[in-house]
């Protein structure tokens, strides 16, 4: 036992109690045994009682320590939660903004409902229902946005309250210390926590009540808007199903409902501008893209025109070159005519603006080009079209408007018939226009009949559709014509495939736009024509649902619209990057007046600019289409596996391209030598670069090879190269005179630099000459060969004039005649 170390006081105490009874011995045998047994029993009971007491005490101490740790953690968490809640509460709720939106909803609901829910008149009108529906949809979108924000804020406030309540109800907080002093300190701490928590909880409760009040108002406004939209949808459905239904009495019968025409105009203008402002606010991105595409097209057409002006290829009558007559107007016409289909369900007033701008541009382009007769016909059709559009912006029926519609439709019939009868078809450049005029006469005649007999909505649809049919047909036909001209003009300037023209081979494209382009324009004409009829919305709704319905692939949810949006944005980014590449590397832009190559300003940074454009496009495409970031990481992981298995060379070239772009060992336009290939850097791409050799060929070199090769860049040294000429003069020449002559020739040559200066030095004594060498620097490396050739000519002429002999290799040959045996023998 002496070997056991008694480190524990508890074990020592047990050992001590166990050993004491061994020393108390009694001589009485039986009593000794009984006393010993009783003593042992008392000792066991005492030890058991002591063990229980010690175990309970240890357990209580452990629970107390555990509770103390949990209490500290809970207090810390409470402090952090209250701090976060205070910070969150300081970010004030946009109560004013929400109230402003609610006031706008109430105000604009009254404006939008005019003629639909109030002042209904005898019957609803298709254009008024459409305008009201668009306004209410935008207001509902605003209300839902505010609703989502309020619900999110309320949820966050409830989360804070839940966290506080959860922390305050932790069981460990209610395990009080047994020591009175410690208990008092703990109670004081709880009192402080309660004092700090109470105002935060009250503030959260108050904020929650305020948000709930606003949320109730927003929900009520959203419910009103949704109910109104459903009611309008019923009106539209009824109108679509009863297109030929009679809404009013005959035009000569007395009016049943009267409203001043001026009042109708006022609310029509207000409602039209309201729909336009809402749509422009929600489609600002598309409007910006429209402007950027117009600017890009203008720059391209102006550049194309400058080529024809410089080459003196421009015709005085612009026959076949009308697209570059006014590059800005042509760009506006082409972009507006094509891009209008990107606007989904636009308000009619926006369409009117786009059409009016296009019509003005085409009218200016036409001036002096088409015959006077057809120019007058075009202006007449434009006048009818503008009047019909203005009439279509009037949103409620009136007897005055019906008479104006009647006059306009009858004028259209008479004007169309006179145009068809008068002829001049041989002067018409687009023969298809005749058929659109025939169709217009038919529609205007039907409109006249429908209007007279009270089919107001049907008559109004026909009167706008008739003139729209002609104007849109002419716009689209001339859009195709101008595109064809643009392709033909580019074909005349560029033959074959060129990198800077996006690898577009104009020789294969030819002089005519591809057939699918015509099909798309015909479909576009049908869409614009069909938008004037209520049944069109119901026929097109399944197609719209196909694009907007959510689909699930595994755990990923997507729509066709999002996929198309991603493709369109990325395609636009690629096109813009290549357009930038085109204008940065086009030779006619980089050539100076003297015909010499001028280094482009953006060419050296072209790769970085393209990378920036594509990276921005990728970011916008991912953000706009809602692609989850975790899916991108999966693609990157798969790409990493592909790189490990077989894409090392490709990645090496791509990374080398980035290194070249940032370190710039070579730039576009530099004069280089790479492994014996001398030439000029034409372009630096992502994977490969192009070097135009002096022989006229283009060498495509991977960026990895370019970076690893022994690259000689003459342009980094200022485009200078030292030239040497070796001359051998006769031994009897005046050496100082030779030096003087050569120095004078070198100093008088303007292509040779003065600093560093030229050097004339004698090299060695050769077999038949004294060798001398001249060294000089040309101001540009491109002048080396020509300067060296001219210098040789001048040196020979100067040496001849001064009787200095340019030695040529000489060799003297001595012939030794071998005598025979009979030679020099004495005569016999």
TrEMBL record:
The keyword Membrane applies. Pfam families: MS_channel_2nd (PF00924), MS_channel_3rd (PF21082). Gene3D superfamilies: 1.10.287.1260, 2.30.30.60, 3.30.70.100. Its main location: membrane. GO terms for molecular function: mechanosensitive monoatomic ion channel activity. InterPro entries: LSM_dom_sf, MS_channel_C, MscS-like_channel, MscS_beta-dom_sf, MscS_channel_2nd, MscS_channel_C_sf, MscS_channel_TM-2. The chain crosses the membrane at residues 284-301, 322-342, 348-370, 377-397, 403-421, 433-454, 466-494, 515-533, 563-584, 605-627, 633-655. GO terms for cellular component: plasma membrane. Residues 725-806 form the Mechanosensitive ion channel MscS C-terminal domain. The keyword Transmembrane helix applies. Residues 649-715 form the Mechanosensitive ion channel MscS domain. SUPFAM superfamilies: Mechanosensitive channel protein MscS (YggB), C-terminal domain, Mechanosensitive channel protein MscS (YggB), transmembrane region, Sm-like ribonucleoproteins. Keywords: Cell membrane, Membrane, Transmembrane, Transmembrane helix. It is found in: Cell membrane. It comes from the Bacteria. It is a multi-pass membrane protein. Belongs to the MscS (TC 1.A.23) family. This is Mechanosensitive ion channel protein. It comes from Pedobacter antarcticus 4BY.
């Amino acid at each position: 036992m002496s070997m056991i170390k008694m480190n524990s006081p508890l074990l020592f105490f047990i050992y001590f109690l166990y050993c004491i009874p061994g020393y108390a011995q009694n001589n009485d045998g039986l009593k000794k045994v009984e006393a010993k047994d009783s003593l042992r029993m008392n000792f066991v009971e005492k030890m058991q009682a002591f063990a229980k007491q010690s175990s309970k005490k240890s357990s209580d101490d452990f629970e107390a320590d555990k509770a103390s740790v949990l209490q500290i953690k809970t207090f810390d968490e409470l402090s952090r939660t209250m701090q976060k809640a205070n910070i969150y509460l300081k970010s004030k709720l946009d109560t004013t903004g929400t109230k402003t939106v609610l006031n706008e909803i109430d105000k604009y609901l009254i404006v939008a409902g005019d003629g639909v829910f109030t002042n209904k008149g005898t019957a609803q009108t298709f254009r008024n229902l459409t305008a009201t529906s668009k306004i209410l949809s935008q207001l509902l979108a605003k209300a839902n946005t505010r609703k989502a924000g309020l619900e999110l804020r309320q949820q966050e406030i409830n989360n804070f309250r839940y966290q506080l309540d959860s922390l305050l109800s932790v069981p460990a907080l209610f395990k009080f210390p047994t020591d009175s002093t410690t208990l008092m300190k703990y109670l004081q701490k709880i009192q402080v926590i309660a004092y700090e928590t109470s105002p935060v909880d009250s503030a959260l409760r108050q904020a929650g009540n305020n948000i709930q009040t606003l949320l109730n108002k927003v929900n009520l406004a959203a419910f009103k808007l949704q109910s109104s939209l459903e009611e309008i949808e019923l009106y539209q459905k009824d109108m679509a199903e009863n297109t030929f239904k009679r809404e009013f009495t005959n035009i000569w019968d007395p009016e049943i409902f009267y409203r001043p025409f001026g009042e109708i105009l006022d609310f029509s203008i207000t409602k039209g501008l309201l729909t336009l402002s809402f749509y422009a606010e929600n489609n600002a991105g598309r409007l910006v893209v429209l402007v950027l595409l117009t600017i890009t097209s203008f720059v391209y057409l102006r550049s194309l025109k400058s080529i024809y002006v410089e080459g003196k290829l421009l015709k005085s009558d612009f026959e076949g070159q009308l697209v570059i007559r006014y590059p800005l107007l042509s760009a506006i016409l082409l972009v507006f005519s094509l891009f209008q289909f990107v606007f989904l369900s636009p308000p009619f007033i926006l369409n009117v603006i786009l059409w009016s701008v296009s019509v003005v541009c085409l009218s200016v382009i036409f001036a002096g080009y088409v015959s006077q007769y057809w120019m007058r016909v075009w202006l007449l059709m434009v006048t009818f079209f503008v009047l019909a559009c203005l009439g279509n912006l009037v949103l409620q029926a009136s007897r005055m408007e019906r008479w104006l519609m009647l006059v306009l439709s009858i004028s259209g019939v008479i004007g169309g018939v006179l145009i068809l009868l008068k002829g001049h078809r041989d002067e018409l450049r687009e023969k298809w226009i005749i058929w659109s005029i025939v169709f217009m006469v038919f529609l205007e005649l039907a409109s006249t009949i429908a209007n007279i007999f009270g089919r107001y909505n049907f008559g109004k649809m026909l009167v706008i559709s008739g003139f729209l049919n002609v104007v849109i047909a002419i716009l689209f036909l001339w859009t195709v014509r101008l595109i064809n001209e643009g392709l033909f003009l580019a074909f005349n300037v560029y033959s074959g495939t060129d990198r800077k023209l996006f690898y577009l081979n104009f020789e294969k494209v030819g002089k005519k736009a591809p057939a699918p382009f015509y099909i798309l324009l015909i479909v576009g004409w049908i869409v614009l024509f069909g938008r004037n009829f209520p049944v069109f919305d119901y026929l097109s709704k399944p197609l719209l649902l196909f694009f907007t319905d959510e689909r699930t692939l595994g755990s990923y949810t997507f729509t066709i619209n999002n996929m198309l949006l991603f493709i369109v944005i990325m395609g636009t980014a690629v096109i813009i990057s290549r357009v930038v590449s085109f204008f940065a590397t086009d030779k006619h832009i980089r050539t100076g007046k003297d015909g010499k190559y001028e280094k482009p300003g953006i060419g050296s940074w072209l790769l970085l600019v393209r990378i920036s454009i594509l990276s921005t496009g990728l970011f916008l495409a991912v953000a706009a289409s809602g692609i989850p970031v975790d899916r991108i990481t999966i693609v990157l992981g798969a790409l990493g596996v592909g790189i490990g298995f077989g894409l090392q060379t490709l990645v090496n070239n791509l990374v080398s391209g980035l290194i070249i772009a940032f370190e710039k060992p070579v730039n576009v336009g530099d004069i280089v030598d790479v492994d014996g290939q001398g030439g000029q850097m034409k372009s630096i791409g992502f994977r490969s670069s192009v070097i135009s050799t002096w022989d006229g060929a283009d060498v495509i070199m991977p960026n990895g090879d370019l970076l690893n090769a022994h690259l000689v860049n003459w342009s980094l040294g200022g485009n200078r190269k030292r030239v040497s000429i070796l001359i051998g003069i006769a031994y009897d020449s005046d050496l100082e005179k030779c030096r003087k002559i050569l120095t004078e020739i070198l100093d008088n040559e303007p292509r040779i630099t003065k600093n560093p200066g030229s050097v004339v030095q004698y090299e060695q004594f050769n077999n038949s000459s004294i060798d001398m060498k001249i060294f000089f620097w040309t101001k540009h490396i491109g002048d080396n060969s020509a300067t060296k050739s001219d210098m040789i000519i001048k040196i020979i002429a100067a040496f001849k004039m001064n009787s200095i002999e340019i030695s040529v290799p000489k060799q003297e040959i001595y012939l030794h005649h071998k005598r025979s045996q009979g030679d020099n023998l004495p005569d016999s």
